[in-house]
Amino acid sequence: MADAPRNPGQEAEHTLRRVTVAVAITPLLLVSAILFYAYDIIYRGTVLDHLRTQALRHAQIIDRFLEERAATLRLEAHSVPVSRLADTRYLEARLTALNDAFGPMYTDLGLIDPQGRQVAYAGPPQFHRTSYADAPWFALAKDQETFVSDVALGARRSPHFFVTVRLWDAEKRPWLLRAAIDFGKFNARVREIRLGRTGKAFIINRRGAFQTDAGDASSLPPNVLTALVLRDLAADQAIVLEGDNTQGIASLACVAPLKGGQWLLILQQERFDALRPLYLARIAAVSTVTLGIIAIITVIHLVAGRMERRLGAAYALQERLQQQIVEKSKLAAIGELAAGVAHEINNPVAIMMENAGWIADLLEGDDLHNPETLKEIRNSVQEITTQGRRCREITHNLLSFARKTNTAAQPVELAPLIQEIASLIRARVYQRGMTLTLDLHDTPPVRASATEIQQVLLNLLNNAMDAIDHDHGAVVVRLFSQEGHAVIEVEDNGQGIAPEHRQRIFEPFFTTKPVGKGTGLGLAICYGIVRNLDGDLEVESEPGRGTTFRIRIPKAPQA
Fold it and tell me: Quick one: 530 and 412 in the same domain?
């Protein structure tokens, strides 16, 4: 069999539960998504700004270190004449004094004449008589007051770079006082710059050559060096580039200019390390929202379950009350039928009594064995039997209708049901001088309660008879099929329904009958029964020309 229709209360409760969950969760998700997006942008911007600030600050520190070395060397160059600086013992003394004052930062000092020859030197002895005439840095340094070279191996075969200061002799020729900076200590200062657990610092020049130890620099994203060599940066500008390093780890590289833009300081950090608080906040936010959603759904289901149980009990009570109303309405209908049934039974009883009296008269006669007498007796007995069967049929129909209501839905044939109700009220119709006409066609069975359909038909027929206040009253009951529905029409030629009352006739306790003649529940009960069957109850009426009630019930689903 097809599935039974769901309880309207359950349908309403399930819909309410889904709507409540959606209404409760949707704003939470929207607000969380907006806050999550805004926090992501703000925090990411804060991290990148902090990274730029750190890069600029460390770049300024390194620039200041180089400027201090140059300033110290400039002070030495301008304090004494060139002839004094040409004394090797004087340079050795000054180298010792400088390292005592500023720490072991200088590895050597040298005085270079205008032709690039080193005429005085303090430092490792193997580099005493070096000529720098062909060195690329010499051509640049002799044209600048102060110069810092790039890091190179040179003749030392170890990384180093120079700081030079230009000075003039008595003949106005340019000389250079050169100091080699200890690369290890300079590199250590740069490597002390740390950010988080994975932050590293490097220095490169504009050709992409590393000016510090490149031990870990091979992990830089490949796109960083290419982008930096071609890009010009302002003195106070730092940029952040993102990409995967050679190990496939997403990284951030913040770049700030050094030495007037000739060098670039690179601060590299793994993106997860830099944005760790953001990722932790994401996890916390997602966990909080998820727990909130679970809590909301749990509470809604608990509350909805409680409401569902209460609504179920309310609907069960409503069904019991409706069943009681139907029973009481049926008892009232039986009372209205009693007079008609009594009149209907009175006629066959009178005939039976008349035939019984006739038989008694024949039995008292002397010609008992006369064939004509026996024939009369047989005819009278046959008539008594016939009228008795008629009485039994009337009482059977009344008792069948009066049985306790069974609201269980099952396939019901409507034509026999209509005929049974018609037989019950036919006597009442005739007593009022009306006619009752049945126009019944074959229709498919409907899934309904037979007793409820009887109740609906009886109420509509009683209302039809009550609406007729003139002679030649007529009531017509039709049954036919229409678009998968069985249609029952109850039509009368009574006084009709006023337009202002037509919209309210299905309201409980609304009646146009005199006080004491009606409760206003009959049509409300009929409407509720038909709607519970997924059917429709419609009315068409014109004052003075009658009323037609039309019931449409869907046919029963196939087994």
Answer: yes
Distance CA 440, CA 422 (A): 12
Helices (H), strands (E): how many in the chain? 13, 16
The strands making up 200-205's β-sheet, listed across from edge to edge, are 200-205, 263-270, 250-258, 239-244
For helices 8-79 and 276-364, angle between their N-to-C axes, nearest 10 degrees? 180
Alpha helices for 365-413 (secondary structure H)? 371-402
Between 228 and 256, the more confident residue is 256
**Least confident stretch, 71-80, 229-238, 309-318, 407-416:** 229-238
Residues 175 and 228 in one domain: no
Sign of the alpha-carbon torsion through 186, 188, 189, 194 = positive
DSSP 45-64: HHHHHHHHHHHHHHHHHHHH
Q: Which of 271, 275, 233, 230 is nearest to 252 (CA)?
A: 271
Same domain, 426 and 556: yes
Task: Tell me the per-residue pLDDT of 118-145, one tens digit each, with 9 for 90 and over.
Answer: 888 888 766 666 788 888 888 888 889 9
Please give the single-letter amino acid code of residue 424. L
The span from the CA of 450 to the CA of 133, in Å, is 122
Q: Which domain holds residue 524?
A: 407-559
User: Over the range 505-522, which residues count as b (16 or more CB within 10 Å of their CB) and which as e?
Assistant: bbeeeebeeeeeebbebb
Q: What is the pLDDT of residues 381-432, one digit of tens each?
A: 777 787 677 677 666 656 655 554 556 678 888 988 888 888 877 777 877 7
Verify that 161 and 201 share a domain, yes or no.
Answer: no
C-alpha 25 chain-centroid distance: 7
Q: Which helix (H) or strand (E) holds 27?
A: helix 8-79
- CA–CA separation, 302 vs 299, rounded Å? 5
Look at residues 211, 239, 274 and tell me which one is the last residue of a structural domain.
274
Q: How many domains does the chain have?
A: 3
Q: What is the pTM of this model?
A: 0.53
d(CA 265, CA 219): 16
Buried b (16+ CB within 10 A) or exposed e, 110-131: bbbbeebebebbbbeeebeebe
Q: Where are the beta strands (DSSP E) in 169-238?
A: 174-181, 200-205
Instruction: Please identify which residue in the block is written with the tokens 């944005």.
Output: 275
Distance, in Å, from the CA atom of 225 to the CA atom of 59, rounded to the nearest integer, reads 18
